[in-house]
Amino acid sequence: MSDPASPRVYPLRLYGDPVLRRKAKPLQATDTLTVPGFDPQTVRQVADTMLETMFEAHGVGLAAPQIGLPVRLFVAVEYEDDEEENEGQDRPLKSRVLRDFVMLNPVLKVIDKKKDRSYQEGCLSIPGIYEEGVPRARAVQVSYTDLDGVARVIEADDFLARVFQHEADHLDGVLFLDRLPAEVTEDYRKELLAIQQKSRTFLNDLAAHERQRKAGL
Question: What residue stretch is flagged as signal peptide (predicted)?
């Protein structure tokens, strides 16, 4: 593992990594952030690389804890809805983006309390596991700060509202499986143990790399 100042993508933290269970801390747009294993970067640089990481993983959102940063930052996108016609699936994912979002210190307010359980939900930190039935508010209002330090407010409903709620959960150490009955997690026990093993291997390699870096090797 190297220490590039501007990595193309970040490695994703996986289920079982303690950082995914920590409550993230507020940040400012002017902060300097250090993703473990990489050189310090501006918040904008980190956000840009998070978006690239998300695209490579074919995701719709990514929270800072998922790259090892316990700060209240997430990125998300809204894609064109062309699944029904099955068009454009061979196009690069970025060409299908309608809007992208970078949110610092997001605060969610539910504006439609009716729960929606119709969408299938997954997580880049829990690869290969998808479940329907995750209860999410149908519509939310998000207050946040953008990369220029400007306070903004946006409202979202349906799938985009779900994306925002999923990413905001990450900032509080909550995973989507937590919002389903315990037997669902138990059903995936074998798969989750395998993901945890990958997580432990990555963390051990990261710790070894950090020791070598400090030793000047």
Answer: none
Q: Quick check: is 52 catalytic? A: no
- Nearest in space to 67 (alpha carbons), one of 21, 13, 14: 13
pLDDT of residue 212: 85
- Single out the catalytic residue among 167, 183, 191, 210: 167
What domains sit in the chain, N to C, each tagged with a CATH number? 18-214 (3.90.45.10)
Residue pair 10/63 in contact by the 8 Å Cβ criterion? no
Q: Does position 180 have pLDDT exceeding 70, yes or no?
A: yes
Residue 123 annotated as binding? yes
209 is an annotated ligand-binding site residue = no
Q: Are 62 and 54 in contact (CB under 8 A)?
A: yes
Q: Dihedral (C-alpha) 61, 66, 72, 77: value to the nearest 10 degrees? A: -10
Task: Indicate the pLDDT class of residue 217, thresholds 50, 70 and 90.
Answer: low
Q: pTM of the full predicted structure?
A: 0.91
Query: Does the annotation place 166 within a ligand binding site?
Result: yes
**Encoding tokens for residue 149?**
């330090």
Cα–Cα distance for residue pair 206/14, rounded to 1 Å: 13
